[in-house]
Amino acid sequence: MEKLVIEGGAKLKGDVYISGAKNAALPIMAATLLTDEECVINNFPMMRDTVTMAKLLESLGKKIKYGKNKITVTSNGKPSHVASYELVSTMRGSFCVLGPLLAKLKKATVSLPGGCVIGVRPVDLHIKGIKALGAKVEIENGYVIATANKLKATHMYLGGVFGSSVLATANIMMAAVFADGETIIEPAACEPEVTDLANFLNKMGAKIKGQGSPRVSITGVKKLKGVTYSIIPDRIEAGTYILAAAITKGTITLHNANLEHLMVLVDKLKEVGVNLESKNNKIKVSPAKEIKPVSITTYPYPGFPTDLQAQFMALMALAEGVSIITDKVYPDRFIHIAELDRMGANIRREGSIAIIEGVKELRGAAVMASDLRASAALIVAGLAARGKTEVHRIYHLERGYVDFDGKLRSLGAKISRVQEK
Ligand code: UD1
What we know:
The structure is a single chain. 51% of the residues are buried. Helices cover 31% and strands 26% of the residues. The strands form 6 sheets. It has a 4-stranded mixed sheet with strand order 22-23-1-24, covered by helices on one side. It has a 4-stranded mixed sheet with strand order 2-15-17-16. A 4-stranded mixed sheet has the order 4-5-3-14, covered by helices on one side. It is built from 14 helices and 24 strands. The radius of gyration is 21 Å and the shape is globular. The protein folds into 2 domains: 2-19 and 233-419, Enolpyruvate transferase domain (UDP-n-acetylglucosamine1-carboxyvinyl-transferase, Chain); 22-227, Enolpyruvate transferase domain (UDP-n-acetylglucosamine1-carboxyvinyl-transferase, Chain, Alpha-beta prism), CATH 3.65.10. Strand 10 (155-157), helix 6 and strand 11 (182-186) form a beta-alpha-beta unit. The longest helix is centred in the middle third of the chain and has 13 residues, at 192-204. With 421 residues, the protein is of the alpha/beta class. Uridine-diphosphate-N-acetylglucosamine binds at residues 23, 26, 92-93, 121-126, 160-162, 165-168, 189, 193, 306-307, 329-330.
């Protein structure tokens, strides 16, 4: 196993290229199950999660050819409707094969994804949605077994305790593409990754309207065709580099990035004192004189993304005053607090709220990554800490960032990979 060793204090400087969005790539890959024709996916982020999804597709009857930042998906002539525990349990995103398998093969047996360190992550909305379309659903031995000879279009309410669900919206959108008539999902998730999936499906020949709004309509079609498509830039990866620049008081330019997907971060960072400017898919980050404390609450898009909560907390750890961070999407997503505190931060948790008293400096320490975005937050903190930070269990990081340490090194960070003893 490897660890990352960071010598803190270097201001980030220079240019960084943002990869395709992981959370758009996963459902788009699943959507290729809806056709037997060839699909080419460009701006493809090569990382552990997308490779896991590729393996899952192979087990479901696809052939994958890897190219430079792209994959080509074709059929191997042996479709299967069984998504195994071995593959689904390692990555929750793979649960979104349920909708396309059901639509294409009229049956789907998909392992339940299981727990996750960021809190309980149920799939009740996914199941509610496919039942509303007329599927028969049973849960047996940890698998969801869904069957439907014919799915029927319907108008459904798909909100949960925490609002809309990204992957449930994706699953139901894909399940409904061949259903007779018009399906309406309310409230649909408005995340750009859901819009990207709808655009991909429309290019394949689907009739989806309203994507990006809380009311999405899907009019069933008979067949979908193979297409070539380019995935949107990863707004969470972009946000992570922006926050890394902000904490080191660096000046960097992001390429292949879309600031329109990060309006809440622009707004909040303006209050912090950091300036973001965008032109032609580039984002320039200019530093704050002093980091002002700013409180945030995470919400579904266009609210502050829960996937940037931990990284923003790392920045607030060094703010000149007190800030409050509330997570309304995953109220238990706070494991990083203890690790940030080991680095000298002063953060305490009360339920789904973190109270952060800014400190003058963070100090390097050995810390443990617990999930994907928490890992990124610890690295962001390490970049600004005095002395050496060692981040262990970085396999979490590799699930969802393309060459994170390499890109940081190209921005001047002193970060290296070391084999654990
Ligand atoms: C997606 C993202 C993840 C991000 C999350 C929230 C992918 C692959 N992952 O996850 O990175 O953190 O959106 O922006 O796109 N919920 C239910 N019942 C369900 C489904 C969800 O109660 O059936 C709850 C969840 O526990 C959570 C909230 O709804 O509290 C939002 O979750 P959801 O949008 O479904 O997250 P994912 O789609 O799994």
